[in-house]
């Protein structure tokens, strides 16, 4: 009996202590307060992180502007980078600008095509054209006078699906012409398979200043190519 009273006394003391603690902390009796949670780990990036991100972005921008700089611009390199950044040029636009002002310096952009208009192209070449007049069998029959350019300076604007090609003998020359009107405005010559032969009479008016015609003895093609000093190099950039 005495032990039971002592236990009850202890229980009452514990209850009174709990009430006093609850009153001190503002908690209601019998209500369990949730345990305090640690501060959230999600924080905005610190100053150092932000600074690093900005620096990385600036570096990416510089790299983007420098991508088209495959040519050695020397002291002009930094001026080009600054200009590209100011103008927000893409790599493609920058490359085009470089081609027009460096590789195509001294050249003009000619445009031309077939008779019906299904085939159209543009080509960068001198305004003073060096035209070859070959006397081989096919060139005589179709009056194939042409000047030679590297393939990088020729761009077919439309009509790829309207072209067909005639090949014979070695099949190295590709005589391409329009399916509709039959006009050959350009082709791939046997002498320059890495370039194009462009028909000067298929160019639009206004960009040709003069035409110099050179005769080629295509009847003795191998001999003519061996003796000619510059024709092979005309299709090289």
Automatic annotation (TrEMBL):
Q: Which PROSITE patterns match?
A: CENP_V_GFA
User: Residues annotated as region Disordered?
Assistant: 1-55
The CENP-V/GFA domain covers: 110-222
Gene Ontology MF annotations: carbon-sulfur lyase activity; metal ion binding
Per its UniProt record, what InterPro entries does this chain match? CENP-V-like, CENP-V/GFA, Mss4-like_sf
Transmembrane annotation, as ranges = none
Which of UniProt's keywords are assigned here? Metal-binding, Zinc
Annotated Pfam families: GFA (PF04828)
Q: Which family does it belong to?
A: Belongs to the Gfa family.
- Which PANTHER family is this protein grouped with? CENP-V_GFA DOMAIN-CONTAINING PROTEIN (PTHR28620:SF1), CENTROMERE PROTEIN V (PTHR28620)
This chain belongs to the protein called CENP-V/GFA domain-containing protein
């Amino acid at each position: 009996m005495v032990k039971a009273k002592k236990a009850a006394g202890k229980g009452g003391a514990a209850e009174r202590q709990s009430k006093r603690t609850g009153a001190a902390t503002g908690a209601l009796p019998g209500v369990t307060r949730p345990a305090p949670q640690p501060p959230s780990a999600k924080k905005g990036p610190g100053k150092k992180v932000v600074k690093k991100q900005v620096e990385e972005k600036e570096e990416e921008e510089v790299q983007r502007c420098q991508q088209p700089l495959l040519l050695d611009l020397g002291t002009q390199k930094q001026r080009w980078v600054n200009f590209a950044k100011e103008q927000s040029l893409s790599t493609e636009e920058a490359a085009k600008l470089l081609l027009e002002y460096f590789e195509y310096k001294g050249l003009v952009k000619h445009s031309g095509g077939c008779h019906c208009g299904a085939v159209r192209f543009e080509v960068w070449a001198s305004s003073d054209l060096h035209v070859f007049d070959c006397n081989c069998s096919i060139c005589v029959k179709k009056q194939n006078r042409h000047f030679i350019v590297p393939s990088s300076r020729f761009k077919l604007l439309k009509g790829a699906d309207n072209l067909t090609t005639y090949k014979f003998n070695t099949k190295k020359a590709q005589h391409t012409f329009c399916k509709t009107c039959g006009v050959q405005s350009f082709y791939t010559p046997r002498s320059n398979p890495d370039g194009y032969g462009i028909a000067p009479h298929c160019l639009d008016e206004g960009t040709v200043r003069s035409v110099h015609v050179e005769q080629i003895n295509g009847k003795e093609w191998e001999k003519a190519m061996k003796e000619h000093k510059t024709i092979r190099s005309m299709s090289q950039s």
